Amino acid sequence: MAKKVKTPKAQPVCEHKWKRYGHRGGGKGGQTFVCLTCDKCKEHSERPATEPERKKIHADKVLFERRQKLMHKAWRPVQKLWEDIEKSGVGWPRGDSETAGGKDKLAAGMERLAKRFPEHIHNARVDDDYHASSDLWFISHFYDDEKVGRGYWGTSVVYIGQCSDDPPVRFFLYPDSHMKYVLATATKLHKKARALNKGKRYGEV
Ligand SMILES: [Zn+2]
């Protein structure tokens, strides 16, 4: 008796429903391709961009680059200041009266940059853990321009403690998540602090 051979079921042919998800190419004189994915079978494909598509892609790229340039206008010099100090090998510890340490250089540099970018750089001022006045710089990444429109991406924060030998710290806050959480926490604790200092109980507020 002949062995029964299993014949694989014919795969149903997908009537692709292509959806655009991006593009590639378009560098120096190169061709631009539109990247596609099928909504049903997830297969990928691409085709050369049409002239109007190519123009739109290029215009979007130019707009993006202009926005980026404006957005990091104040942050780039801060980054450079930070990196130059690191490269100089002076180290982060505070210097003495004769030689400025890395943190002194950073603190002085930030003061200078805040004067140069008063709309972008603000000092919230805090104490370090020795209760000595210290800097908490907020550097805004935004654009507000006739040609490229308006937008606020986020805020970089630079902390420079005065008396400890710890290196400075930097981190980033998105406005609708991190910034909101920091504000909510600070507001809550501020209310409690005021209540306790007026003689109320901690749980009362
Ligand atoms: Zn398909």
If you had to describe this structure to a student in words, what would you say it looks like?
This protein is of the alpha+beta class and 205 residues long. It has a domain at 71-198. 34% of the residues lie in helices and 27% in strands. It has helices at residues 51-71, 75-88, 102-116, 178-197; strands spanning 18-25, 32-38, 44-48, 121-123, 126-127, 133-145, 149-160, 169-173. The strands form two sheets. Strands 4, 5, 6, 7 and 8 form a five-stranded antiparallel β-sheet that branches. Strands 1-2-3 form a three-stranded antiparallel β-sheet, covered by helices on one side. A hairpin with a 6-residue loop joins strand 1 (18-25) and strand 2. Helix 2 (75-88) runs antiparallel to helix 3 (102-116). The longest helix is centred in the N-terminal third of the chain and has 21 residues, at 51-71. The mean pLDDT is 92. The structure holds zinc ion.
